Amino acid sequence: xxxxxxxxxxxxxxxxxxxxxxxxxxxxxxxxxxxxxxxxxxxxxxxxxxxxxxxxxxxxxxxxxxxxxxxxxxxxxxxxxxxxxxxxxxxxxxxxxxxxxxxxxxxxxxxxxxxxxxxxxxxxxxxxxx
Length: 130
Known about the structure:
The chain has helices at residues 66-74, 83-98, and strands at 21-23, 31-41, 48-58, 62-64, 102-112, 115-123.
């Protein structure tokens, strides 16, 4: 029996916090997923923050399905998160969803007040070439 996806192939019109996965294809050694369309709110001022999020991981048995990732990113739009906390939250959610052998999440917050922030959260031992 094939796994049923929560988002893929369905008309979803709301954000979702759950990441769908699928079996890792043979020979896939690393996956990089990047979006420059992530938004959240400053937890203090409520002003919007615009982020680029890069997820790099070595899958063990599962990969993250991209439509569910888009809906997952959308779920942060009305939530307050510091850039560093957002990197950590995404890392832990990726680990929970697909248990990668290693994972690095980079969040780059677009400048506001002249300050650009880049935060990285890491789990597992990342090979040197990454």
